[in-house]
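Narrative of activities, Objective 1.

The group set out to show that a structural description can be obtained from nothing but a protein's sequence at a throughput compatible with the screening campaign. Below is one input-output pair from the validation batch, recorded exactly as produced.
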Amino acid sequence: MKFQPIIPIIWTEQVQETIEFYSNILGFTCGERNDDWGWAALHKDDCELMIAKPNAHTSFKQPTFTGSFYIKTDDVETLWQELKTKTKIGYELETFEWGMKEFAIYDNNGYMLQFGQDITI
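Output recorded for this entry:
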């Protein structure tokens, strides 16, 4: 048995705005979309995510994810330069003792997205 990559589903009442954020700010492509379901699938390189309106059996008032989405990249400094003036910053580019250079931003819903590069290799 082999696990495959996790594909997060971001719950939001703002499906169109969220598609625009991930497409226009982060360069994702909307590969699939179903407006009847309030759902879309986006991707960039090896990174995938889904966006969905909460359904009838989902308790949802606002974003409730208690963690962050961590995306590894091979050029975190260039990405930082591209994003630092385009969205709300969680924390600025920093090198950590565990060998990662990273920063964090918030998407249009308030979900934290961290971007990191392994600098030990």
